[in-house]
Design a protein that fits this description.
alpha+beta, Jelly Rolls, two-stranded antiparallel ribbon, 9 strands, 27% helix
C-alpha cells in the first residue's frame, strides 16, 4: 500500500470516528425533550449555584416513589432483592429523567457517556430532626468540588440532584445555600468563618416547593442540611451525586444485585472511572 493510500485510509478512519461521535452527541440531546437547559436556568445556576424546578413529577409518580423508599427504609424484606435499596425499583427511571439530563449535559459534559451517578440515598427527617453542618464554597483544585466557567460553558464538577417527595416550606428544613459561594474568591471551604456560617447570618437561602420538585446544585456552593420544622409532613428526599467519568468521590456502595437488574441505559451511569483519552486510537 502506498503512502498516499495509507494516509487516505487514516483520514477516512478519523472522519468516521468524528461522525460517529457527533451523531452520538446529537442523539443524546434529541432524546431528552429538547436536550439543553433553558437560558433562564443556566443563568440562575451560574449565579446562585443551584436551581429549583417545582412539581417535575405528578402526584401518582410521587406516591409510587414514596411507597418504595418507605418500604426500603422500614421493611426491605417485603421487596425483591433488586428493589431493596436505591437506585432500584421505581426510582430507576429517574436516573436519566429529561429534567435532570438537560441540566447535567450542560454543566458536567455534553456527552451522556461521560456522566456518572455514583451515590443515591434517602434523606428522611421527622419534625426537629436534622443537623447544621455547612461545607464547600470557595476555590479548589479538587475536580469533585471545583466550579469553572470557560469558553462559554459551565464545568460544575460534582452536581447534586435532589428529588423532594414531600412539601418543603421556606426556611423550614430544606437544604440551605449561600448563593454565589461556588465562585467566591475567599476559601470558606477550608477557612470557615463562624459569623458567615451561623444560620441567622442573613447570607443563607433556602426554598419552598411542592412534592415532586427537583433541586439541582453544584457541590461547590456552600450548603448545609437543616433541622426539619414543617409540622405537616416529614422530609422525604432522594439525593443523587452525579459527576464526570474522570473522577470519583464516593466509595462504591450500591448492591450488585440492584445494578445487575437495571436497564442497560441506566447501568451505564455506574461504570468505572476512566479518562476519555483512553478511547483514542
Amino acid at each position: 500500500m502506498s503512502h498516499l493510500s495509507r494516509l487516505r485510509d487514516k483520514f477516512q478512519t478519523k472522519a468516521k470516528k468524528a461522525a460517529k461521535k457527533a451523531t452520538k452527541l446529537i442523539q443524546n440531546y434529541s432524546a431528552l425533550s429538547g436536550g439543553k437547559v433553558n437560558e433562564h436556568d443556566r443563568i440562575v445556576f451560574d449565579l446562585k449555584g443551584y436551581i429549583v424546578k417545582p412539581a417535575v413529577l405528578n402526584e401518582d409518580e410521587v406516591n409510587v416513589l414514596k411507597e418504595l423508599v418507605l418500604r426500603q427504609k422500614n421493611e426491605p424484606e417485603s421487596l425483591p432483592p433488586q428493589e431493596r435499596c436505591l437506585p432500584g425499583g421505581a426510582f430507576a427511571k429517574l436516573i436519566d429523567h429529561p429534567a435532570v439530563m438537560n441540566v447535567l449535559l450542560d454543566v458536567i459534559d455534553p456527552d451522556i457517556e461521560k456522566i456518572r451517578l455514583e451515590d443515591v440515598f434517602l434523606s428522611y427527617r421527622e419534625m426537629g430532626e436534622g443537623e447544621w453542618k455547612p461545607h464547600a464554597g470557595g476555590p479548589t483544585t479538587n475536580p469533585n468540588y471545583a466550579y469553572n466557567f470557560q469558553d462559554g460553558r459551565i464545568y460544575a464538577g460534582m452536581t447534586r440532584v435532589v428529588w423532594e417527595l414531600t412539601e418543603v416550606l421556606q426556611d423550614q428544613g430544606g437544604t440551605c445555600f449561600i448563593p454565589g459561594s461556588h465562585k467566591a474568591n475567599y476559601n470558606i471551604r477550608t477557612n470557615p468563618v463562624a459569623s458567615i456560617d451561623t444560620r441567622n447570618s442573613g447570607l443563607w437561602e433556602s426554598y419552598s416547593c411542592p412534592p415532586g420538585s427537583l433541586i439541582i446544585f453544584s457541590e461547590a456552593v456552600r450548603h448545609s442540611a437543616d433541622f426539619w420544622q414543617n409540622p405537616h409532613n416529614p422530609r422525604i428526599a432522594i439525593f443523587c451525586a452525579y459527576n464526570h467519568i474522570n473522577v470519583r468521590h464516593h466509595k462504591p456502595s450500591i448492591s450488585p444485585e440492584v445494578l445487575e437488574r437495571l436497564a442497560p441505559r441506566h447501568q451505564r451511569f455506574f461504570k468505572d472511572v476512566y479518562h476519555p483519552q483512553f478511547d483514542r486510537v
